[in-house]
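Slide 14.
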Amino acid sequence: MRTTKVLSITLPEAMLKEAKRRAKKENRTMSELVREALRRYEALQSLRELQAYGEERARAAGILTEEDVDRVIHQYRAEKRAAAEAKKQMQQRKAS
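Slide 15: predicted structure.
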């Protein structure tokens, strides 16, 4: 049983010629070439959606510039260091 479906598309003559040239150069079928193009398109769209989500979340958090990113990173790292130091001090007191 076939796991693929046949799809008929139209392309401008120049695009079809280039696609055939590319497929021949890469020893691929036209179907493989189109599948790869669709996979890349889907990956690009997913990346764009993820970037848009990240930008939205950054704006909501007040992160608008590269300097804001640096500030937030430094602040987070300082908080982590302070928490680690407090934990270390607590363990030392318990050991005493």
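Speaker note: The chain has a mean pLDDT of 94.
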